[in-house]
Amino acid sequence: MMVDQEASIIVASAADIIVAREMGRKVGRELNFSLTDLTIIATVISELARNIIVFAKEGNVKVGKIKQGGKLGIQIIAEDNGPGIVDVFLAMQDGFSTGKGLGLGLPGVKRLMDEFEILSDTGKGTTVSVIKWVL
Amino acid sequence: MEVPILKQSDYLIATIQAALTDEDLLNLHYALVERVGKHRSKGVIIDVTALDIMDSFATRTLRSLAHMVKLRGAETVICGIQPEVAFTMVQLGLTLEGISTALDLEEGLDLLKKIDTKKRKV
Predict the structure, then answer these.
(1) Which of residues 61-100 of B touch A (CB under 8 A)?
(2) A17 CB near a chain B CB, below 8 Å?
(3) Which of A51, B10, B46, B82 could lock B42 by a disulfide, CB 3.0 to 4.6 Å apart?
């Protein structure tokens, strides 16, 4: 697995969310993703970046190109040093929310992407890593 | 970026022209709810043709906006949701339940007129 990191954006305000998703679109276009996939990528970044702002106030969104076997894809990593998620299993259930969201953020993101990984440590922070492969 | 709100006879038309920050969306919220009273509008159209994504925040804001407009006695129609945006919203599990939608501005105005005529008959 090889990752070519294209950008790392500090997310600390609502305006940064737009910057982050534009970066995702740019990298996605370079990988020749379809318009639907570009919309999915931008939406996923928007959801993950908003989670950072709502729950951790500040964090990072990294966008990169990933190569695995013969496959090429886009990898998005959203990380923060916020409070962390107490029950990741519950957070992955549709309709569960402790924040201001719809409670659909993470399961929805998982549905939209090909690979989904979440690491969360209470008191230390959360890292969500997702990949979408170019078909 | 502020969203311009146009008054067209009994209706208000808000055309979103570019990606909006959360703050812009909330400002639109307050501006519309206030203008509905000021102009005694019967309906509001929000044209989202230029929006390249609708995430959970945007969806929630539009939904609450429509409900507030309704409490002020007017109807809301959201028009111009792009096909790939619709696709992504459904996958993400976002809905605009109970809110009227239309393909474009023209259809949106037609729909508002129909709702209005129905209301007057009652």
Answers:
(1) 82-85, 87-88, 91-94
(2) yes
(3) B10
Chain A: nearest CA to B63, how far in angstroms? 12
Looking at residue B51, which CATH number applies to its domain?
3.30.750.24
Does A15 sit within 8 Å of B91, measured CB to CB?
Answer: no
* pLDDT tens track for A69-93: 889 999 999 999 988 888 787 788 7
- Report the number of distinct structural domains present in chain B: 1
Per the structure, the count of domains in chain A is: 1
Residue A120 distance to chain B (closest CA, Å):
22
* ipTM > 0.95 for the complex: no
Q: Which domain holds residue B26?
A: 5-121
The tokens for A65 are 């190109």
Give the nearest chain B residue to A37 (CA atoms): B84
Q: How many CB atoms lie within 10 A of CB B79?
A: 23
